[in-house]
Fold this sequence. Notes:
The chain is an alpha+beta fold.
Amino acid sequence: MTEALTLAEAPGPRGHWFWGSIQERRHQPLQLFLRAHQEYGDLVRLRMGPTISLVSVASPELVKHVLVDHPDVYGKPPRLFAPAAPLLGNGLISSDGDFWKRQRRLMQPAFHRERLAGLTHLMVDSTQRMLARWRARPSSSEPLDIAAEMMRLTLGIVGRALFSTDVSGTADRVGQALGAALEGTNHRMLSLGLRAPDFLPTARNRAYRDAISILDTVVYDIIARRRAGETHGDDLLSMLMAAQDADTGERMTDQQLRDETMTLFLAGHETTANGLAWMWHLLSHHPEVEARARAEVESALQGRPPTVEDLPRLRYLTQLFEETMRLYPPAWIVGRMAKKEDVLGGVRIPASPRVIIVTSPYVVHRNPRVWPDPERFDPDRFSPERSAERPRLAYLPFGGGQRLCIGNNFALMEAPLITAAVLQHFRLRAVAGHVPEPEPSITLRPKNGLPMLVEPLQARA
Ligand code: HEM
């Protein structure tokens, strides 16, 4: 058997003698990962300054090794979510180990398709409210930022799904606090340690703390009133409050409910919103795909609003969203850290917080061994027959293994229902000359938004 390579011997670009590839990681991460894998193969090491390494894997087999086969070895990097801790607390995204396992077990039943079916009417209802707003615009010749519209829509939906309350309006105090907390969390996650420490009373730090304290008051108040029997709701919060550990009979404390609902707020809207924004962009440039999508909607719904029962008849819309997430995976990178030494793809991986194992769905989804002509947009790749031919981890918009996105069914019901409801009444057209650039922020979003022309269908008749 051949000896495993050390990290220093692993393939990868040398980069700057001191900084390695840190500048490219900051300014052009998608290109950095894509090119490194094209040049050096399925596993590459990227130096980030003198002490930190990223080990990036891009084949379904290596991704499976890290995400699926060895959960005892590869865990969440402990400091990754520290900047978001004031908002997320110890919720499902940031927790690890036994605590995470117990929470995941408690929460999983609320995310089964049958339970979620009861929430789908509000997905359609929220979309129709958005469409009414679009219809009321004085002129349809002014472009609308579709990325912002999708964000507002999915934020409204996840808020109603959690608490039976729409919090997406920016006019009121809670809406503003939510906006400030989400924006502040993004800023903190992206500043890579280059920000004022939390104890300094800078304007930004104070605004962030104030926003979170307003949200805390609201969420704890909702929980207290539910516990006192003053209010009820057929929503995720009530399912989480009722969830009981099968072994111990324990339920979540108020603090855990608060952390989990904040986490679901954050995880449950920006990803879906950006996926949808990219989908509208792609659709506007592929009239043959749009025509097929419209034909499906017309034949499945015959003019009535979509419901969850229609989803099996809206298969092409689902494929459309799946293919969009192949090209523009909203969660464009997933990170792990080895808790024990391991050999991965012939390279010895030390158990060190300075070695982060990453996989980028953006790169895996362009692996030409699995995806012929990878840049071509073709929703038929996700027909049941063609999907069955691929290795499972060739496609991972929702991650994989035990940390698979808990909201994947939620998103896969929400996206086609929104798409169907919009297609029934509007056509979204690209603004001539505007080419959106993918910005790999926490999620992969169109840089500077996505202006599109929004035309009511009746007006075209
Ligand atoms: C298109 C939409 C979505 C995408 C692309 C997406 C993607 C992902 C990915 C890749 C992960 C795994 C991260 C990792 O392994 O490190 C994840 C985890 C998670 N997602 Fe999603 N997500 C989406 C929608 C949602 C929704 C709608 C919700 C909730 C309503 C949600 C809640 C979560 C939570 C709580 C986790 C952490 C799960 C755990 O570690 O146990 N996501 N998501």
